[in-house]
């Protein structure tokens, strides 16, 4: 198979040969929708991420390019029988605010992230990378036999990023490289990095996976050292193999400060954690290696988090993907650095694309999963109040104050009002924290009574947030309210930004 492009509506594309890669832009009707604004990178600030350890997630779920990752989605009952033998047949990701880079991984020569993953990552301010992997000497020699061929590969990879709206490449060379090709490989990395910055955007990333050493031998080092630092010098990031110990971290630190402290950041080194526990501690105990990584101030690369649905739960348990995901990421929470919402205007109903029934093992429900319908997610790790019900909206079943979004929304001098409209099935209070410098910092929700779900009482919940300019005069701190309806409450909070700061509370 040379090209996977199921249809113009699938949003799925990858390549297995150089010939097919060079012809990619001749495929008719290939994803024209990627130019829509919904695929642009929002809520992103690399300057912030550059000043702290980062978290990279490398997707590796059952070979990739599964039917449920297509634009049209899939109904649970249409899953093949072999999939129903698995505990949870669908993997999705909800904790976007806690990671910085998402890599879509497969073993195809060139892996382009599916549309649905690009959309999900970008609306949460996360860079998303494809994968360039070579696992045979024959394919490598063909790809690097001549400068003109290598240049065409670079051009194709850059064009894919530019036209398909993603942000760079993970480079994984899993075969011996003969000495005659070593300089050309380094030149390929440098040119790819430079051309991505020049033609896509200045925060694109080329990340090298710890495999081939400077001599060309395939020899995983589990660290950055004198034998592989040549490749780090040519790219943006270095992703280590998973069989490391604390001694490897110490060697990586020493190598970095001796050779790279002037032109690289310690945060450009991503120490690998395999969630399946191959050559390292994994599973529910991934927090242990992550804690050690953060002790040395490195970034982390979490590989194959789909473990939560491939391995868990046991066959006789009815636990959802959302349950497992929340459990897994809550264990990592102390060692994560969330990034913030920057968009002045956003709208979300918190949908994750499907309902909880189709996440359970061997469900017979005819629920549709469509990841394209995923909306902006809240900061789930800020509390444990959200139920596993994954219909549009969120169900808060505890009493208290819960942080929906961490924000850094700059209010301009010309912005007179801040407005938030919402729908809710039960009475709530919203708290918006605005600093003295008029930056929105938090959006919280407060519940007074525990809400008991009613058959007709739970509907789609939506929050729409915006700040805007107006010449209309208003009294200080004016708040517009509507009388609560018995089931669906539609309300609006309006604040005069030029006359108040501090804590604003909707009552």
Automatic annotation (TrEMBL):
GO CC terms: cytosol
Gene3D superfamilies: Glycosidases (3.20.20.80)
Coiled coil: none
Classification via InterPro entries: ENGase, TIM_ENGase
Domain Cytosolic endo-beta-N-acetylglucosaminidase TIM barrel: 86-356
GO molecular function, one term: mannosyl-glycoprotein endo-beta-N-acetylglucosaminidase activity
PANTHER family from the UniProt entry: CYTOSOLIC ENDO-BETA-N-ACETYLGLUCOSAMINIDASE, ENDO BETA N-ACETYLGLUCOSAMINIDASE
Name used for this protein in its record: Cytosolic endo-beta-N-acetylglucosaminidase TIM barrel domain-containing protein
Organism this protein belongs to: Meloidogyne enterolobii
């Amino acid at each position: 198979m040379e090209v996977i492009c199921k249809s113009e509506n699938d949003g799925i594309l990858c390549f297995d040969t150089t010939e097919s890669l060079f012809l990619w832009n001749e495929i008719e009707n290939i994803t024209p929708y990627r130019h829509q604004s919904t695929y642009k990178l929002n809520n992103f600030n690399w300057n912030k991420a550059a000043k702290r350890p980062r978290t990279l997630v490398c997707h590796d779920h059952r070979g990739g390019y599964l039917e449920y990752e297509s634009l049209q989605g899939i109904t649970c009952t249409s899953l093949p029988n072999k999939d129903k033998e698995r505990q949870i047949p669908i993997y999705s990701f909800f904790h976007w605010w806690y990671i910085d880079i998402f890599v879509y991984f497969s073993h195809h020569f060139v892996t382009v992230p599916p549309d649905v993953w690009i959309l999900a990552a970008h609306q949460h301010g996360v860079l998303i990378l494809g994968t360039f992997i070579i696992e045979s000497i024959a394919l490598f020699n063909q790809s690097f036999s001549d400068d003109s061929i290598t240049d065409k590969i670079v051009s194709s990879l850059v064009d894919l990023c530019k036209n398909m709206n993603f942000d760079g490449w993970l480079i994984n060379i899993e075969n011996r490289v003969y000495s005659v090709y070593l300089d050309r490989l380094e030149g390929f990395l440098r040119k790819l990095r430079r051309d991505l910055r020049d033609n896509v955007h200045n925060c694109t990333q080329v990340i090298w996976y710890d495999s081939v050493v400077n001599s060309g031998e395939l020899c995983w080092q589990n660290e950055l050292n004198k034998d592989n630092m040549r490749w780090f010098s040519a790219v943006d990031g270095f992703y280590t193999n998973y069989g490391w110990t604390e001694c490897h971290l110490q060697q990586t630190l020493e190598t970095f400060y001796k050779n790279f402290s002037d032109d690289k950041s310690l945060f450009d080194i991503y120490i690998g954690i395999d969630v399946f526990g191959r050559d390292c501690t994994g599973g529910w105990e991934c927090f242990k290696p992550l804690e050690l990584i953060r002790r040395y101030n490195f970034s982390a690369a979490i590989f194959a988090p789909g473990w939560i649905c491939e391995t868990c739960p046991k066959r006789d348990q009815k636990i959802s993907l959302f349950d497992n995901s929340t459990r897994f990421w809550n264990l990592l929470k102390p060692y994560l650095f969330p990034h913030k919402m920057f968009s002045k205007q956003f709208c979300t109903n918190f949908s994750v694309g499907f309902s909880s029934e189709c996440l359970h093992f061997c469900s017979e429900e005819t629920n549709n999963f469509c990841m394209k319908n995923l909306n902006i997610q809240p900061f789930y790790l800020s509390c444990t109040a959200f139920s596993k019900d994954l219909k549009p909206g969120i169900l808060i079943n505890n009493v208290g104050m819960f942080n929906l979004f961490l924000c850094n929304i700059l209010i301009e001098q010309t912005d007179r009002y801040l407005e938030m409209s919402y729908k809710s099935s039960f009475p709530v209070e919203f708290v918006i924290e605005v600093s003295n410098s008029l930056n929105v910092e938090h959006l919280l929700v407060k519940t007074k009574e525990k809400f008991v779900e009613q058959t007709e009482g739970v509907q789609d919940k939506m929050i729409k947030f915006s700040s805007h300019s107006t010449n209309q005069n208003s009294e200080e701190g004016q708040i517009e309210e509507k009388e609560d309806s018995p089931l669906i409450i539609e309300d609006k909070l309006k604040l005069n930004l030029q006359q108040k700061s501090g804590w604003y509370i909707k009552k």
